[in-house]
Design brief:
Layout: H1 2-23, H2 37-40, E1 48-49, H3 50-53, H4 61-64, E2 71-72, H5 74-82
Antiparallel strand pairs: 1-2
Length: about 120
């Protein structure tokens, strides 16, 4: 009887960390994934430096730093959580409408390299 109680105690002790991990869903108090702004702002200066942001592996600092000052303020951090900091799509240059500018040369067709059959 004593061995079954020991086995139960060991099983419960082994499963406790699993239950704690499942109880937390990975979201902070604001409802976003990952650490909160206040958690990342370790020096409490009201902004997150790139070194502070490195604690969150999911944070893409360069894309989140909208004004390019090297820090994330609370609004940039919130926009990152909403996914509104995606970079603008790149456009390709359009051909010039100026008739004095020559049009880009097109590539010549590849030469026929097949040997004729005899």
């Amino acid at each position: 009887m004593k061995s079954s109680k020991t086995l139960i105690a060991i099983t419960v002790a082994a499963l406790l960390p699993l239950g704690a991990a499942m109880a937390g869903d990975g979201k902070d108090k604001s409802g976003s994934m990952g650490p909160s702004f206040d958690t990342l702002d370790t020096n409490r200066d009201g902004r997150i430096s790139q070194a502070e942001a490195s604690a969150d592996a999911n944070l893409v600092f360069s894309a989140s730093d909208a004004n390019g000052d090297g820090y994330l303020d609370k609004s940039e951090f919130k926009n990152r959580a909403k996914g509104t900091t995606s970079p603008a799509p790149q456009s390709t240059p359009s051909p010039s409408a100026d008739p004095t500018v020559p049009a880009p040369a097109s590539e010549p067709a590849p030469a026929d390299t097949e040997t004729p059959r005899q």
